[in-house]
Amino acid sequence: MYAPVNPDSRTEPAGDAAPPEAAAPEPVEPVEPAEPAEPAPQPKRRFRGKPESEEVRAARDARDRRLVRRLKQGDERAFQELVQTYQDRIFGLVFRMIGNRQEAEDIAQEVFISVHRGIANYRGEGRFYTWLYRIASNTCKNRIKYLKGRNFHRASDIDETPAAHTRGEDGGPIVALQSAVPGPEATMTANRLERAIQAEIAQLEPEHRLLIVLRDIQGLSYAEILNITGLQEGTLKSRLHRARLALKVRLQPYLE
């Protein structure tokens, strides 16, 4: 997808991208309250990857702990394995947050460089991938502020790049709408709707955009998102509700 990460290729990590790891809550999916209808006319789960089973999650955590332990001991192969494992998901998150492929590639590499340099701050009390996502989220927010000051414009439509839809080994990223729609005419309609959804997500406020991507596109649990963002549960659900309402309003012209 992009060139292998060289942890010595940059001189400074981005902003506060590598905070000390905080203890993560148990990743058990809480019972969700009734929510307003999704902005798209397809079922809600159309936008989420398949949820992980407890066995898959436990195996991933065990693998991550082994790789982190090796990386702390100076094993660079462990770092490359972590990059290969998570690069698709991190690139998908960054690309949807930024909307520009070249910027997303650069930021994704910055994220992994920050992981390499800040791995000593990861104490292993929480899941590694939520720590990684927190670094990616902070890096994106810092870059969005920087680009906003430079009147940055996206160079490509957010949904036009196949890498943004790549399914990582752990599942997660968006399931293309047209995959469940038969016939060429319906497929064209679904393609247009998918482009509209991704373009309008990119127009949301960064905090709202992040929650939509984490919850409704990459399918993370509320517990995981709480650990990534540091929000209180009530604040998270309130902001996500407002984000969905904002997206629904923006999509209304496409659904009429």
Could you characterize the architecture of this molecule?
The chain is mainly alpha-helical and 256 residues long. It is built from eight helices and no strands. The model is unreliable at 11-47 and 155-181 (pLDDT under 50).
Assembly of the depicted chains: single chain
Number of strands: 0
Q: What is the terminal-to-terminal distance?
A: 37 Å
Largest sheet: none
Give the helix level as a range of percent: 55-70%
Kindly provide the radius of gyration, computed on alpha-carbon positions and rounded to a whole number of angstroms. Answer: 18 Å
The residue ranges in which pLDDT falls below 50 over 5 or more consecutive positions are 11-47, 155-181
**Averaged pLDDT, please?**
75
Overall spatial form:
globular
Helix and strand run: HHHHHHHH
Sheet/helix structural class: mainly alpha
Note the beta-strand portion.
Answer: under 5%
- The tally of helices reads 8
What are the key terms here?
256 residues; mainly alpha; single chain; 0% strand
Quick structural gist:
The chain has 256 residues and is mostly helical. It has 8 helices and no strands.
Indicate the topology.
Layout: H1 54-72, H2 76-98, H3 101-118, H4 128-149, H5 184-201, H6 206-217, H7 222-229, H8 233-255
